[in-house]
From TrEMBL, chain A:
NCBIfam families, A to Z: arch_KAE1, gcp_kae1
Cofactor note: Binds 1 divalent metal cation per subunit.
Protein name in the entry: N(6)-L-threonylcarbamoyladenine synthase
Species assigned in the record: Triangularia verruculosa
TM spans (from-to): none
UniProtKB/TrEMBL annotation, chain B:
GO terms assigned for molecular function: ATP binding; hydrolase activity; protein serine/threonine kinase activity
Organism listed in the record: Triangularia verruculosa
GO cellular component: chromosome, telomeric region; cytosol; EKC/KEOPS complex; nucleus
Protein name: EKC/KEOPS complex subunit BUD32
Protein keywords: Activator, ATP-binding, Chromosome, Cytoplasm, Hydrolase, Kinase, Nucleotide-binding, Nucleus, Phosphoprotein, Serine/threonine-protein kinase, Telomere, Transcription, Transcription regulation, Transferase, tRNA processing
Keyword Kinase annotated: yes
This enzyme's EC code(s): 2.7.11.1
Subcellular location: Chromosome, Telomere; Cytoplasm; Nucleus
Entry's family note: Belongs to the protein kinase superfamily. BUD32 family.
Catalytic activity line of the entry: L-threonyl-[protein] + ATP = O-phospho-L-threonyl-[protein] + ADP + H(+); L-seryl-[protein] + ATP = O-phospho-L-seryl-[protein] + ADP + H(+)
Amino acid sequence: MLDLTKKKRRIALGCEGSANKLGIGVILHEGDSLSSSTSTVLSNIRHTFVSPPGTGFLPKDTARHHRSFFVRIALQALSAANISISDIDCICYTKGPGMGAPLTSVAIAARTLSLLWNKPLVGVNHCVGHIEMGRAITGASHPVVLYVSGGNTQVIAYAEQRYRIFGEALDIAVGNCLDRFARTLEISNDPAPGYNIEQLAKQGGRVLLDLPYAVKGMDCSFSGILTRADELAAHMKNGGKGPDGEPFTPADLCFSLQETIFAMLVEITERAMAHVGSSQVLIVGGVGCNERLQEMMGAMAAERGGSVYATDERFCIDNGIMIAHAGLLAYETGFQTPIEESTCTQRFRTDEVLVKWRK
Amino acid sequence: MTEPTTEFPPPKILTLSSTHKPILITQGAEGRLYKTPSPFQPNQFCALKYRPPKPYRHPILDARLTKARISSEAKVLDRCYREGVPVPAVLAKDAAAGWMMIEWIEGEPVRVGINTWLGERPEDDAALDTTQEDETPLIDLMKRMGVAVGALHRTGVVHGDLTTSNMMLRPWADDRLPNGHGDKTEKAKAVAGDVVVIDFGLAMQSQSDEDRAVDLYVLERAFASTHPRAERLFHHILDSYRESFKKAPGVLHKLEDVRMRGRKRSMLG
Ligand SMILES: Nc1ncnc2c1ncn2[C@@H]1O[C@H](COP(=O)(O)OP(=O)(O)O)[C@@H](O)[C@H]1O
Ligand SMILES: [Mg+2]
């Protein structure tokens, strides 16, 4: 292995495809590799597999999408970064967690690049990717992290070389709840079901429909809420009335759903902040783009004398750059994934990763 | 627990007497806790737990949750107190205004005691194994925690938020404290005291093995993430829970399932 401590510029290519987004990005780290280094995004290209309204994305179709777009997206990422292959130090890919078939298709492509260009491989935990990218972009040094996406709902804080999970969803993930409710209402999946729920919710709010509120300690659950929201949607289609005796709309449903589940997320985050004694909160993952969630979290953090850190869709939504960044951080500590171990895994807990790059 | 960084106006109930200023002890997860002279007994203090309106929450949802939580917290505390579980007594409440007044518990949260005990030692497990340190005082505390949780469950209550911040260590009288001098005694004192369970904001009445197992699972995870260096001793809590509570075997069996589910749901991307 080359001595990275002597190398002032280090570049990684990252490949992500654990769900319906295929993302490839190139990151540059400059300066002393183990302490004060700066990160620059050289390119960050994404292509999303969008399924028709009322449907979700199936693993095999998603994997096919990633296979057919990989080369095109990789070439775009390289040319946008304006680097040559010899500049790249390592190839990073998402090892998990995620959907099996899409993960595998991207891992194979990453392995191919590694062999073709003779570059070391680095397998990355998707969740750690989100956290590290969020920290790099926002500058939040020691935040409590709320990680909310289609597959994950976790409240995380760093302690003693690991990202420890303080709370999580006990059944379905919050993004999954939103996505499935979008299907119930047959809202478009383009660009994302959650985005369209957010837009629709802005027109609602005349009434707050009663949904279960399910928080247990720092954990929460969403399936009961989804069931009730689905029932209310059926009730609405049959001309049913709301609590004020007036008919209600899909917008009112989206509004009530958001108000309820985001209040739960803010509550468990606040509990973790009180527990670890932190006043910074960082929101990562696709649901983290939601401006209402950011606003609610901001109000909570402000009251605690702190603030909320969030990123926009380029970094919140699954992307390749976060994999490149977290992979390069690990690579700089000497970590590599030998080709014969370059598998992927659908289950890969955030706290399994030894975070050697932090104190 | 975060030190309060901002000045908050106290709830109205605490502004009625002008002689004593209430002291804001913590801005906890969702409530503020004040130490204030008892209106019922001279020269005594009580704790006032106040759930202020949450600016981020829809007002209707906020009012509904606040009222329900104060009512249920007071109800559960009453029940535990009656049955002899070590909890603070409820002295007064106004659920719609979001406050209840409870007995003041002297001492520090268990979290503080355990962290003082653990000190600044490195996490290096090998180093731990070679130290011949006597861990009895810490293990005894963990046993008392297990007994307290057992007593709670026996009364038909599940806590919903068991952590080492939600248990207090009420100091023993001097004659029960470890005697002697030096660091060793000081450390033992940090983990001495009766375990008093607090913060029943998420508690509910339940006798089901499943709910009880989830309660233990919450504690197990909170313990592991708060005190990673003492994680290997966690089983002492479960052991004493088993010894002190007749229905424990069924609960601990369920706990295996709950853990399994926890690991299985370990996430899709
Ligand atoms: N009865 C009491 N006597 C003394 N201190 C208390 C009492 N109740 C709570 N505290 C202190 O206040 C903190 C927050 O109280 P708690 O009831 O846990 O509220 P929260 O729901 O905000 O966590 C506790 O961790 C403890 O340090
Ligand atoms: Mg508490």
